[in-house]
Specification:
It is built from eight helices and five strands. By secondary structure, the protein is an alpha+beta fold. The termini are far apart.
Length: 198
């Protein structure tokens, strides 16, 4: 299994001139697109409600994966390595704090290969849900749109990326149309129950 690179704080990447381009551009996307309101969604708050606070508190980690796409199994192993490292780092946090933790793994050698990213996420997601994590997929040409408004793209990032976080009860909404994933989620339960996290 690939060894994850040491993650960096997304907020610091914005203020740190030596930060690599992939980190600066990804952090700017998180700040300028994911952390701002989108009126077309018909609700207040940021595109992702947890992100502004998480970014401000230094809870969003960025890591690079430099593997190319010749070996899909190596890409899978890299993501699962990041997931294991992420779980270890947040294991002792209180639920309310762990809820805000996220790791964005940026696949710097997969530009233009959203299909490979989709494959990694598809294969890894059942394994992650079983241990209380979930993974989101982002890339420049992502066709994913909001469940509230199909005209609003929600997953277009500057680099191909997979974002790891704890699963929550809200994830059941997104899994309802995927019977096998829904079954795994119901059996494992959410990684963090936001209804009781304090």
């Amino acid at each position: 299994m690939s060894t994850p690179t040491e993650p960096m704080d997304a907020a610091r990447a914005l203020d740190d001139p030596p930060a690599p381009d992939w980190a600066v551009r990804t952090a700017a996307w998180i700040r300028d697109e994911i952390s701002v309101p989108v009126p077309e969604l018909g609700r207040p708050g940021a595109l992702c409600p947890y992100v502004p606070t998480a970014l401000r508190r230094g809870h969003i980690e960025l890591s690079a994966c430099t593997l190319a796409g010749e070996d899909p199994q190596a890409l899978d192993a890299a993501l699962l390595g990041h997931a294991a490292d992420f779980r270890t780092r947040v294991h002792e946090l209180k639920p309310a704090e762990a809820l805000l933790r996220c790791r964005v793994v940026v696949f710097t050698a997969l530009e233009g290969r959203g299909d490979l990213l989709t494959g990694v996420r598809t294969r890894a997601k059942p394994l992650l849900l079983a241990v209380g994590l979930t993974v989101g997929e982002f890339f420049p040409a992502s066709p994913d749109t909001s469940i509230r408004n199909s005209e609003v793209p929600v997953a277009r990032s500057p680099w191909p990326s997979l974002a790891l976080r704890h699963s929550t009860p809200h994830d059941e909404l997104f899994l309802a149309g995927q019977p096998e994933l829904h079954r795994i989620f119901r059996a494992a339960g959410p990684g963090i129950d936001t209804r009781t996290a304090t």
